[in-house]
Design brief:
The complex is a heterodimer. By secondary structure, chain A is mostly beta strands. Chain A has two helices and nine strands, in the order αβββαββββββ. Chain A has a five-stranded mixed sheet with strand order 4-3-2-6-7. A four-stranded antiparallel sheet of chain A has the order 5-1-9-8. Chain B is mainly β. In chain B, the strands form three sheets. In chain B, strands 2, 4, 5, 8, 9, 10, 12, 15, 16, 18 and 19 form an eleven-stranded mixed sheet that branches. A four-stranded antiparallel sheet of chain B has the order 1-3-7-6, with no helix packed on it. In chain B, strands 11, 13, 14 and 17 form a four-stranded antiparallel sheet that branches. Chain B is globular and about 60 Å long. The chains are: A mainly beta, B mainly beta. The interface between A and B is medium-sized, with 11 and 14 residues.
Chain lengths: 174, 301
């Protein structure tokens, strides 16, 4: 639940800076469902959430893994979030404030990314893709891509996985 | 192994037999246990090296190849636990620093023949430039040789890919990445440049075959031809390990897979070598230099 604290904190910081930086009023809310799987050996998946825009480097918004392992041991398996690792993970130093978070239990989770905090940039209008990838130890791996057409009014998109991810919804508000 | 009695066939047989493991459908390869590493400094890759008909399975005798590893800073690194088994070789490599490692096996051997007592004799298999003097007996005349160079490579990266290990030597066939070989993904085109003896290997056939041949009905081979700069592009249809290979010289003739690229016009071949340009090689002509390059790359998806 570590990430929750961070979100609360960054949310508070946002309030102070919102007047000075009106562009940072954007917030991307991502709702994702981790399916409950009846398997003998279940480990919570590692999950990465990132933004892609053609011609620019991918931006990691959040990566959920074993952040509490001794000696930062959880990062060893981050490369198993393979598409994220290639797109962004291998160029990051983790843990990173506002990006690293603990793994989540099955269920629906809402994560909020205020622009200018953590890995979340202020989004100018254009075509983006929100990507969510879940990789489970001794289990499967799945990528869900959610196209986001950002306009002055914001953006809205959704997608769904079949195996390791359920519904993914994204709303960019301002 | 076939035996050729008649001297007339000897030279034709030389080329085919000098590297029997390279002939026909047998493919040389290395397969790393992983290609992407966190870069903690305390990770290992295990590499299998073999020749086989099917990728990536062990179905030919294990080869006593000497792996040469280049670390991200360009220095040489020793492998550990190297072992040559009946069907494959295996070794471990410590991933100590961030960046891209090149794992290579480079073979160079001489093939050819000489005249002794009115008979044409073949150089023994395994002859190299260093052992040529002892391989040719006193009194031999008309010594004809050609060099067969084979380069087998694979790449692994800890953290972000870099490019220090891609320095070329100017001998045989070599790969210069346009797209980094540890940065490949499904649906994205990847471009590689090939050099033959340091010059662009233009107009040559390149194949890419996904691993897992045994359990599918379609070989899945992708064929492409290098452009004037020796560059070739592939767009990967699915994730997995791919074997990418190119050959020059050697056998000729129509049909794919015959290595029949030696007579491609303007193939960037260095001058002054006996290559028998143009037209089919006469049966009794001098042996031809040949070169083979094969790499295993992982495509993410």
């Amino acid at each position: 639940m570590q990430i929750n604290h961070k979100i609360v904190l960054t949310g508070a910081a946002m309030g102070a800076s919102a007047i000075a930086l009106p562009a940072a009023a954007q917030t991307l809310d991502v709702t994702l469902t981790l399916p409950r799987l009846s398997v003998a050996e279940y480990h919570r998946p590692y999950v990465a959430i990132w933004l892609e825009k053609e011609g620019t480097p991918a931006r990691t918004l959040s990566v959920l893994y074993d952040v509490d392992k001794r000696n930062n041991g959880g990062v060893k398996w981050l490369r198993d979030i393979r598409m994220w690792w290639r797109a962004s993970g291998r160029s990051l130093t983790l843990p990173a404030d506002g990006i690293s978070g603990a793994t989540r239990a099955p269920g629906t989770h809402k994560l909020s990314f205020p622009a200018g905090k953590g890995g979340m940039p202020a989004l100018s209008p254009g075509k983006y893709t929100l990507v969510v990838e879940a990789a489970r130890e001794s289990g499967g791996r799945e990528v869900v891509r959610v196209p986001l057409n950002v306009t002055a009014a914001g953006a809205k998109g959704s997608g769904s996985g079949q195996f390791e991810l359920g519904a993914v919804n994204a709303v960019l508000s301002r | 192994m076939m035996k050729f009695r008649k001297p007339l066939f000897l030279l034709a047989a030389t080329v085919a037999m000098a590297l029997p493991q390279m002939a026909g459908a047998a493919r040389p390869w290395m397969l790393p246990s992983e290609t992407m590493f966190a870069g903690s400094g305390n990770e290992w890759v295990t590499v299998d090296a073999a020749i086989s008909s099917d990728l990536y399975y062990f179905d030919h005798p294990g080869q006593d190849w000497q792996p040469v590893v280049t670390a991200p800073n360009g220095s040489a690194v020793q492998v550990e636990n190297r072992s040559v088994g009946k069907l494959r070789q295996t070794f471990d490599l410590g991933i100590k620093t961030k960046g891209t490692y090149k794992i290579a096996i480079v073979n160079e051997m001489l093939m050819g023949s000489y005249m002794l007592d009115g008979e044409r004799k073949m150089l023994p298999r395994g002859t190299t430039a260093a052992t040529l003097a002892t391989a040719v007996p006193q009194g031999a005349t008309d010594v004809q040789t050609a060099t067969a160079r084979t380069r087998i490579e694979t790449f692994v990266t800890a953290g972000e890919p870099d490019r220090k290990v891609f320095a070329t030597t100017g001998t045989g066939l070599e790969m210069v990445p346009v797209t980094h070989p540890n940065d490949l993904a499904v649906g994205e085109p990847a471009t590689f440049q090939f050099l033959l003896n340091g010059k662009p290997a233009a107009g040559m056939d390149v194949v890419a075959i996904p691993g897992g041949i045994r359990y599918r009905s379609d070989l899945g081979q992708m064929d492409a031809k290098t452009d004037a700069n020796g560059k070739v592009s592939f767009t990967w249809p699915e994730a997995g390990m791919y074997w990418v290979s190119i050959s020059s010289g050697g056998r000729r003739g129509p049909g794919p897979g015959a290595g029949g690229t030696g007579n491609a016009p303007g193939a960037g071949r260095p001058q002054g070598q006996a290559q028998g340009e143009g037209g089919p090689r006469p049966l009794m002509g001098p042996p031809q230099d040949r070169a083979t390059y094969a790499m295993t790359v992982e495509v993410q998806g």
